[in-house]
Sequence to fold (961 residues):
Amino acid sequence: MTKSAGVEGTSSSDPNSLKEEGNIHFKNGDWDSALSCYSKAISLIKEESKDKAILLKNRAAVHLKKANFNEAAKDCTASLEITPNDPKALYRRCQAYESLGRCEDAYVDARALHSVDPTNAAIQPVLARLHGQVQEKLRTNAQTGNKLQSMSDIVFDFGGDKEKRETAANNLIVLARERAGSEMMLKNGIAPKIQRLIKVEKNEEIVVACIRAIGELCKHNPAQTSKVVHEIGIPWLVDLCVGRVGQGLGKNERRINATQHCLQIILDCFSGLKTAVSGGKEEKKPDTKLIEEYKKEIDTLLMCISMATTARLASGDGRDALILLLTQNVHYSVLDWGLQLVRNGGLQRLLEVSSELEEYTYESKMEVTPSTKTLVAACLARIYESMYYDAAREEYVKAVEEFVLDKLKSPDLESKVRVTVAITSLLLGPLDVGNAILAREGVIEMILVMANSDDLLQQKVSCECIIAGASKKDKVKTIIDQGVHILKKLYQSKDDAIRVRALVGLCKLGSSGGTDASIRPFAEGSNNKLAEACRRFLVSAKKDQDIRRWAAEGLSYLTLDADVKEKLIEDRAAIQALVDLGKSGNRTCVYGVVTTFVNLVNAYEKKEAPSEELKKLAEFAKHHIPQEHELDDPDFVAKRTDILGKAGVASALVALSHTESAACKELICRVFNALCNQQELRGVVVQQGGAKALLPMALTTDPHENTEMGRRHAAQALARIGITIDPTVAFPGQRSAEVVRPLLNLLHVDYSALENFEALMALCNLAGVSETVRMRIMKELGLQKIETYMYENHTLLRRAATQVMTNLMLSPEVIKAYEGDNDRLKFLVLLLSEASLEADFDTVMAAAGALAILLSNSPKCCKKMIKECSRWIETLQALLAQPVPDFQHRGAAIVEAMVRSSRQVAEKIIETNLLEILMVLSRMDGDEYKKIRALASEALKSAEEMKLIKKPGEEEEEEGE
Fold:
């Protein structure tokens, strides 16, 4: 909006001048400038005067225009405190309250205004409307109150029927979802009652339902959430999550999940976290004003969650849930908790959790799960990512160093073991920090001494640290230089847990050549021997899951070698063991299992092969050129993919897709896409739940839930499924509409032609499903994207896009788009004629079909065609004259629709030789011309009814006279 002349650039410090300037901006519709002027003027008036009341009213009017209803109500209230019963202030606050859904408060203001100014005509309809809303709300509240009373009586009756109590508890959830129900529940103090019930309730179904009801109460608005939180207390909710409430019932997984979800709802409500578009991408963004307003509550939640991570009485699952909450909210793009955790000791507490070992059994030990270390490593990485400037990162590293030094100062062996385990977590999370700690004097030497000791626990933790540290050879040269010798020695151990870890370390070092067939770090055949050792650990029924997952991790490194891939894929027992391990869904198994699958199907990122000229230059400069193994040719890859698909790998991927790691989700999407690349496996993927698992991974916009490349592979896999399988089967119900967005995301200029083509083919099938899907395509701006590809030079892309448009023409909204003031129809006709010249029959068929549907449903487009398309006659003549029945059928349908549309259009048709062609077509023999004859006859009949042509009998009669 342009600023008015005469006020632009004004920087007055006089309230009256600012008010006048604000009034001018308001009249011009420049709400932001008006708001700025009124706010400045208000800040300059210290005393409660009439002038201040006027400015507050004016600012409230701006807030109403900007839909900031809370702020408008506050300004009106402040104005009324200075000048009670002011009509304008009452009216504007009434508007704000009504917009906020506070009809009773709005009604009170409307009545007050009517009393002050009975002649005010504007308030009469408002008063009548609000009176009806208040009466309706009173009736609803009465019904809701009866329901609540009835359900409360049942739920809180400990001696009542079990099934009735469970049903009533679930009904509380439904009631809490409704605004009227939630307000009534708050008035009746339902949250404290639930709190008291949970402390003594034995029925876990009722406990979980009550926790979910509290979560629903916190969804409506921050003020209501604040009331709930203050009634039950944040510490109680956190304790409920970790399992210290209700005599150990908190260890129940469903209770923990429900409480974790409830805590996240509270955080989302206080922070206003919602999806926003930034840089063309959707991202979850918090509301900074809300965060500032509820900073105390948010900080309390952070502190309670952070403190509870090291609670000695917490269950392992509860601890994992809290660490997951920190991971989801710590990043600077969400709640920016990173620096707070560094400064308040939260980072050290996480390191303490990561150093916990099951082998140390004493009364005050922390309970952990097999997933705890993985979750802590991910959380440590997220915290480090949120340190987006150097000073903050320095604080992070300093806090870690203090933790490490404190442990190293202690003379006991346990502290040294624990610090080694914590360093391993750092190497698996924020790698740069882990490497920085390893580089400190004496740390690597300590780890190597532990590896050479006879103590099994020391060997185990040092071996894991060596494996994690071997990722960056240039930074941990000591580990690499001495690691092979130590790992070989540890592999001779009689303890399987030590042997398998040493084996993984050797596998990692042996895979340093990657996929380059010319690099062999170890002697020829060593990798196959290592793979065989991993295989023995993997398939042995006597080995526990932890040993098998280490064996899978060893294979994840070795399967970069094509020889190992081929040997492994023929070993059905080993493949089945990998699949079964994946089906367990264990978080610790994700990386090893999925990476092995990625390597087997060659779904990893591949560098573009250098040209022959570059190869010659490299040879001349004596530079190494990577060589691809002959066993990685497409035929071998296809065979391996087929074996994996038939072994049930899709079900394993579905189970593993619940991982919190975005990198692992990308790997899962890569394998799914490789499976869907083979047409015969697509049905298997759908049957095993692959399409359902892929959809959320393709839809997410959070980079911490899936990477951009992961989303891309997931979308392509969905496209391939949508091409082959009936969309109503592959994407039943609402999924057929939800899959639209990821498919449209594949229509990107930077993506390959294959991705574009497959997306268009799947969209074509989806567009034929229902009007709901077609409307979703329109809503996601799919029409514009698809039209872009209709005029591509690429024949297949042009054809596929035109076929999508044919199905989209079934939507009245698409037809409206073509009826608008644009060149869409002209381009469609142009495409048809150009395609005809190129003899691209499929595109001609699709374009003609789209045009036939459009003109059959839009008389307006029939007129547009004659008026705006200069070559419409030649186009129709070419279609009708083609010696192909399908072309002639579409041409006849177009002409029939145009003749039927209006007399004006029909006259233009009759003026051309199209009439003679229709007469010929109406007399064609053969079953293949049955539909063409019918359409031609209908067109001629319409012309006869309009008296534009005469019936054959009438012509003969005239000739006889």
